[in-house]
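Try this one yourself first.
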């Protein structure tokens, strides 16, 4: 408790400092650059080509002046325009608080980012929500060579209670038919990307980076979404590179390099009452580098609802010094509050690990830790050859209650019943 209190106090001081250092800016800005009327700004910015440049409506690229209002205004114009419209964030640094980019839009909107968006460190402004919120938008494109910088380094804390309230950087909720490409997501305060209740979204050629010890900085979290592809993306963070939560189906992850981080994960599952099944997940042609996990399925030991995770395929994966290259953990309970008496369980079945090679930094390259209540079934280990990279021990598979078959797999790893 004493630590908790201290942490709270430290964070409080930090917030006060941030609030003080940014609170003046909007006032200074209002005096310096009165925003033009939306219509005038919009048509001027668009030049008739549907391009809404935030600097044409008064956004200042000094990285210190809050540009939330100008970003919001450019969004409103673009979203209200017929045909193809683009919100342009040109080169330069633009500070912003929480943004509400809601649809439905009249036409198709592209957010083109060439500059850097900086997330304000004035935490109360987020009011417990996320930073860039894209809601109910169809046919969305986010592209460019720019950066979404959450500026998390200024707020990271080891205190889980505090950290939970931090904002995700980029949120897609109820988005249908989207493409996110080219951009960099940097040092988010919480998840870099959170995709929820969305469909037909393609994520490609992104770079997602945060320190290996930054808490909860998942690269991309996908939940309750269908047909989401993540391709050719490099992710190194302090938490899961990609995590796939309940209600997700037809998720394809290819060409992802992950590390540092906690790997590519299905789960955690079983935490929420309204959670739905996960199925048809393919993770293919990926490299895991010095991550704590490689490919993982994790479900709560005392799941609150019985759901199923099935048809999961992990193939052509190279492990480089990964601590737990292949892991199913049905006894996940990070807060150690699980009651083993729980009647619910997450069923894990039809999981294929094919052509997985490289090295493990611990002897247990394969850990299939399933529950006696709900054994894993239909697990296949095909062409799995991961060697221990350390000394004085050798690679080993550890299985509990895991049923399935092994083929062309190192004998020591083929622990299935
Ligand atoms: C976001 O904008 C939409 C549409 O303009 C509005 O309906 C909604 O209330 C806004 N949400 C917040 C949290 O401001
Ligand atoms: C998906 O969105 C893109 C980009 O806005 C658009 O060009 C395309 O026509 C959309 N596809 C469908 C099926 O609506
Ligand atoms: C990936 O994105 C960068 C911009 O960040 C761009 O320069 C490059 O051409 C893109 N690569 C591909 C294959 O699209
Ligand atoms: C994802 O990839 C699969 C297989 O290539 C393809 O059928 C599907 O249309 C893709 N989905 C999106 C949203 O790009
Ligand atoms: C196995 O995976 C590696 C990538 O890790 C790939 O280069 C190789 O072609 C795959 N082998 C087969 C038979 O698909
Ligand atoms: C080798 O690794 C296994 C599995 O982690 C462990 O139980 C065992 O103690 C290790 N042996 C030595 C000699 O370190």
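Now uncover the answer:
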């Amino acid at each position: 408790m004493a630590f908790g209190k201290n942490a709270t106090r430290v964070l409080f001081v930090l917030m006060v400092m941030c609030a003080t250092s940014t609170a003046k800016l909007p006032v200074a800005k209002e005096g310096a650059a009165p925003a033009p009327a939306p219509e005038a700004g919009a048509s001027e910015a668009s030049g008739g080509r549907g391009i809404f440049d935030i600097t044409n409506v008064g956004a200042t690229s000094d990285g210190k002046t809050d540009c939330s209002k100008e970003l919001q205004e450019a969004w409103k114009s673009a979203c209200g325009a017929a045909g193809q419209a683009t919100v342009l964030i040109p080169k330069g640094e633009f500070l912003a608080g929480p943004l509400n980019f809601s649809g439905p839009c009249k036409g198709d909107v592209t957010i083109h980012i060439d500059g850097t968006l900086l997330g304000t460190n004035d935490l109360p402004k987020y009011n417990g929500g996320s930073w860039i919120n894209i809601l109910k938008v169809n046919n969305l494109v986010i592209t460019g060579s720019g950066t979404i910088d959450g500026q998390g380094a200024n707020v990271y804390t080891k205190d889980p209670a505090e950290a939970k309230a931090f904002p995700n950087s980029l949120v897609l909720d109820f988005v249908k038919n989207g493409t996110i490409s080219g951009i960099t997501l940097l040092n988010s305060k919480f998840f870099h990307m959170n995709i929820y209740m969305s469909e037909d979204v393609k994520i490609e050629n992104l770079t997602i980076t945060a320190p290996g010890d930054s808490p909860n900085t998942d690269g991309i979290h996908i939940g309750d979404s269908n047909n989401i592809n993540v391709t050719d993306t490099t992710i190194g963070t302090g938490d899961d590179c990609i995590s796939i939560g309940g209600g997700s189906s037809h998720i394809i992850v290819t060409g992802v390099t992950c590390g540092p981080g906690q790997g590519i994960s299905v789960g955690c599952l079983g935490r929420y009452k309204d959670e739905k099944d996960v199925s048809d997940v393919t993770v293919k042609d990926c490299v895991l580098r010095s991550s704590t996990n490689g490919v993982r399925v994790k479900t709560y030991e005392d799941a609150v609802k019985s759901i199923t995770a099935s048809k999961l395929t992990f193939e052509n994966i190279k492990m480089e010094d990964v601590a737990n290259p292949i892991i199913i953990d049905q006894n996940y309970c990070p807060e150690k509050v699980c009651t083993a008496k729980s009647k619910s369980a997450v069923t894990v079945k039809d999981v294929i690990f094919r052509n997985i090679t490289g090295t493990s930094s611990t002897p247990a390259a394969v850990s299939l830790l399933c529950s006696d209540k709900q054994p894993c079934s239909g697990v296949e280990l095909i062409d799995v050859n991961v060697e221990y990279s350390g000394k004085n021990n050798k690679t080993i598979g550890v299985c509990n209650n895991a049923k399935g078959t092994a083929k062309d797999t190192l004998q020591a790893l083929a622990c299935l019943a």
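Discussion: The pocket of 2-acetamido-2-deoxy-beta-D-glucopyranose (ligand 1) is lined by residues 100, 102 (CB under 6 Å). The chain is about 15% helix and 45% strand.
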